[in-house]
Specification:
The protein is of the alpha/beta class. It has helices at about 5, 25-40, 60-70, 80-85, 95-105, 110-120, 125-135, 145-155, 160-180, 185-190, 230-240, 265-270, 295-300, 310-315, 325-340, 350-360, 400-405, 470-480, and strands spanning about 45, 55, 215-225, 245-250, 280, 285, 340, 370, 410, 415-425, 425-440, 455-465. The chain is globular.
């Protein structure tokens, strides 16, 4: 077998847990929801008249669009790749409906799903349609161009539920379609297996296993770290190398390099929190967070930025002078050195080159983002789906193996419910963590239903909470802490995804 053939071997599949039982929508609600999805991502056909099933274009317009897309396709793309992509619509994809079923059944807020169901039901009645669309015809019976006009009006509606629908449904449907589509990746030039680089071998982890039982399992250690991400990983290495007995826990599971990169659909469930997206209560901001062994370091884009000077000064002004000290700078440099952070080995794709070139022409300042690739050129385009080359120096590849080599122990599948405190001389002191451990299934995966669950108490001299920006405050609140600053002062660095 040639090296090229070896590099193109697809990663192992990672079966998903069962779909939620029962239907999250009624048959008529599904019909309306899929009609909305087909409006947001319509099939495109050649026709001189409007259609209920697709968006119609004149033959000359269609041919121009096909020719323009075809010019950007990879050389080995199938001749009919563009036509199949344009003809595809969400309602024809069983995987699309399954993913929506998962999203509504497992991850979406119950009150939000309830609100969507109410509107979907109303759109299948004459009075409801008249109120919500201005037409008496059921929404799903309207031609696509009328449905698009209705959705556009919703964004300016005086009814808040309709504005929310116009804000939430397009990104939901588009992101779900991208995961379910069989035609979009060939058009984008993203095959199942990366064509750049080669498969790598990651670290062989040995996770704690517990036998079945009804009694609470008690584990003793010096330090327990809740969370295996970037913060927890760095703490684990330093404390283990200092000689402390150490246990790192995470609610997520480890997927080795041979399972990576995953498909976008599988990664959303296995590697990301909440099925791939968290949304603020007012739906104004969406968050992406990791939920697998290694946390956000498993699914980030290799970007490794040091804390900027004005941020460090702001923290120092609030009474934390350490952040403007040379010692803190030395800490940053040590972290970057361990991960091989630099801009020396970056190979830009066409989009990045276009952005950099445009910035120069407009006189804007543009800098390359340092990457944690261990001093290697890493150009695959799949980093956010897990690094199959085991080159991205996230916690799974760097910090946690270092900790393991120094004697640290690990537990995956552990949901930390609360920190346990004891009172000594009038002060509350953390003495451990209580939670629930869930094993893998009999096949070593996480899709089976035959899995052991145990209540666990991890007794420790020190407890480090490092379960991410979103969940660290929740764990502290569940533990009975009442400091009014818990969960406050979050600053987000927004990223915008253009949807065309």
């Amino acid at each position: 077998m040639s090296s090229t053939e070896l590099n193109l071997i697809a990663p192992l599949e990672s079966p998903l847990p069962p779909v939620p039982e029962g239907d999250v929508l009624t048959d008529s609600q599904w019909t309306t929801f899929l009609a909305i999805a087909d409006t947001i991502i319509p099939a495109i056909q050649v026709s001189s008249s409007h259609s209920r099933d697709s968006l119609s274009f004149q033959a000359s317009e269609y041919a121009h669009a096909v020719d323009k897309i075809r010019h950007s396709l990879p050389a080995d793309a199938a001749q009919d790749a563009v036509q199949r992509y344009l003809a595809e619509k969400p309602s024809a994809l069983p995987a699309f409906r399954e993913l929506i079923q998962r999203q509504f059944g497992h991850y979406a807020k119950k009150d939000a799903v309830k609100g969507i169901r109410v509107i979907l039901s109303a759109l299948d009645t004459r009075p409801g349609c008249l109120l919500l669309t201005g037409y008496t015809t059921s929404f799903h019976l309207q031609p696509v161009h009328i449905r698009q006009e209705i959705l556009q009006r919703w964004s300016q509606s005086y009814l808040p539920p309709l504005r929310q629908m116009a804000k939430v449904l397009p990104p939901l449907c588009i992101s779900t379609y991208v995961k379910a589509s069989a035609t979009i990746n060939p058009v984008l030039g993203f095959p199942r297996a990366p064509v750049h680089g080669k498969p790598g071998k990651g670290f062989d982890y040995d996770f704690l296993q517990l036998p079945p039982g009804d009694d609470q399992e008690i584990i003793e250690t010096d330090v327990v770290i809740v969370g295996s991400g970037c913060g927890g990983g760095v703490c684990a290495k330093n404390l283990a190398e200092a000689g402390h007995r150490l246990l790192v826990t995470d609610r997520g599971y480890h997927f080795s390099a041979k399972h990576l990169p995953m498909t976008t659909a599988d990664a959303a469930i296995h590697l990301f929190h909440n099925g791939g997206v968290d949304v603020s209560d007012d739906n104004s901001v969406s968050f992406i967070a990791g939920q697998s062994w290694g946390g956000g370091g498993t699914i980030n884009w290799s970007a490794s930025l040091q804390t900027q000077a004005f941020v460090r000064q702001e923290w120092a002004d609030e009474g934390l002078p350490f952040f403007t000290s040379s010692e803190y700078q030395n800490c940053l440099d040590r972290v970057c050195q361990r991960m091989g952070v630099s801009t020396k080995h970056i190979q830009h794709n066409d989009h990045n080159r276009l952005i950099l070139d445009g910035a120069r022409k407009l006189g804007y300042s543009a800098k390359e983002v340092p990457q944690n690739t261990g001093g290697n050129k890493h150009y695959c385009g799949y980093c956010t789906l897990g690094c199959g080359a085991a080159e991205k120096q996230g916690p799974v590849v760097s910090w946690l193996p270092d900790a393991a080599n120094a004697g640290a122990e690990f537990m995956e599948g552990f949901q930390a419910d609360k920190i346990v405190f004891d009172t000594s001389r009038g002060n509350k002191i953390a003495i451990g963590v209580e939670g629930t451990w869930t094993s893998r299934d009999e096949m070593g995966g996480v899709s089976g239903t035959n899995r052991t669950k145990r209540e666990v108490f991890i007794r420790a001299k020190r407890v480090i909470v490092s379960c991410g920006t979103l969940h660290s405050p929740l764990l502290l609140l569940r533990s009975g802490l009442t400091n009014p600053q818990i969960g406050r002062n979050l600053h987000c660095h927004p990223g915008k995804t253009p949807l065309v």
